[in-house]
Amino acid sequence: MRITEIREKTASIASPIANAYIDFSKMTCSVVAVVTDVVRDGKPVVGYGFNSNGRYGQGPLMRDRFIPRLMEADPATLIDEANDNLDPFAIWDTMMKNEKPGGHGERSVAVGTIDMAVWDAVAKIAGVPLWRLLADRYRGGAADDSVWVYAAGGYYYPGKDHSQLKAEMQGYLDRGYDVVKMKIGAVPLAEDIERIEAVLEVVGEGRRLAVDANGRFDLATALAYAEALEPYGLFWYEEAGDPLDYDLQAKLAGVYSGPLATGENLFSHQDARNLLLYGGMRPDRDFLQFDCALSYGLVEYLRTLKVMEELGWSPRRVVPHGGHQMSLNIAAGLGLGGNESYPDVFQPFGGFADGIAVENSQVGLPQIPGVGFEAKSKLIAVMRDLA
Ligand SMILES: O=C([O-])CC(=O)C(=O)O
Ligand SMILES: [Mg+2]
């Protein structure tokens, strides 16, 4: 059993939307195919992956370093003998050979995307959905039947007024979501408060609305927003300051009584540990948003979950960023608290299996082998185009 080829192509996910930090007018993502010589139903098993929005395609890093390391390795060293399958852990170690520690930047996205494709292949070789494989290997077989999801959107874009923002949010409620998320921080506080009040007219209560500042604020601005947001009783206040500014996060947690969320831009278990040790995050109410596709994949995610456990955090406090099926599988298989969803943006990469509707903010998973990409027709068309 061996990997015969790994292909990457960079796809556009450009759109006119913006958060408080970036616009998405040139946004791309990598699509990866890991081709194996294992045959199922008369065809070679191919595992697929892609990276979440926000960090661009990683083709050059993959082609320069990570794909050659895997293709040059003795195939026997990449096998999990006990399970008669590929070994995602050995594959990870091989990709990361001769990489110094620290500085977890774009390389974690390149590795995380290939890792997603490896796990898709592993579950396909095992002939089971990935959530089932994860539950069997790591949770004594217990899998969640459905996963809580919330609708993320509420972006800024040219000409978007309150009526369009409200219509967007109404559309999410109509499609079965109970909680919606909107962007803040690209306009002055008073203007954001007007936007928030407009959305509250649609969703009714603050506990059905999360807000996301995408790391834009300095301490003074983060605290000013905290004071203004506190009375609304929001679902969460996300990524107020720079992702690595644990001091800001801790000071914010010291004054804001409602739930805080962060972590989508922390790309290693060491960074996650530092957040939990020094960021003032509160295990009884706050949310962690680590995204496997950006942070070295599921192999590293298992380490991050272990760090959380050691520091007294339940996996239910994790609601990953990214709105992709990989995190949905991890959520169902490893018992996370939920998953993000982008019903209207980042298509065809965002979203879940065709024909599985969101009801009461819960979504089910397909019963097919792998991550489930084959159950999402527009996405699998892009992937099959690659291999
Ligand atoms: O706008 C983005 O970069 C995406 C994001 O933060 C989120 O989904 O939480
Ligand atoms: Mg965010």
What can you tell me about this protein's structure?
Strand 8 (209-212), helix 7 and strand 9 form a beta-alpha-beta unit. The protein folds into two domains: 3-127, 2-Layer Sandwich (Enolase-like, domain 1); 137-386, TIM Barrel (Alpha-Beta Barrel). Helices cover 37% and strands 17% of the residues. The mean pLDDT is 97. It has twelve helices and 13 strands. It has helices spanning 59-72, 88-95, 107-126, 130-138, 162-174, 189-203, 219-229, 246-255, 269-278, 297-310, 325-334, 377-386, and strands at 3-12, 28-40, 43-50, 79-80, 85-86, 146-152, 180-183, 209-212, 236-238, 260-262, 287-288, 339-341, 362-364. By secondary structure, it is of the alpha/beta class. The structure holds oxaloacetate ion and magnesium ion. Oxaloacetate ion is lined by residues 19, 53-54, 152, 212, 214, 264, 321, 340.
What is the helical fraction, as a range of percent?
Answer: 25-40%
Cα(first) to Cα(last) distance is 18 Å
Radius of gyration: 20 Å
| CATH topology type of the largest domain | TIM Barrel
**Would you tell me the structural class of the helices and strands?**
alpha/beta
Low-confidence stretches: none
Using the 3D structure, state the CATH architecture of the largest domain: Alpha-Beta Barrel
Report the CATH C-level class of the largest domain: Alpha Beta
| H/E element sequence | EEEHEEHHHEHEHEHEHEHEHHEEH
Oligomer: single chain
Shape call: globular
Total number of domains: 2
| Tally of alpha and pi helices | 12
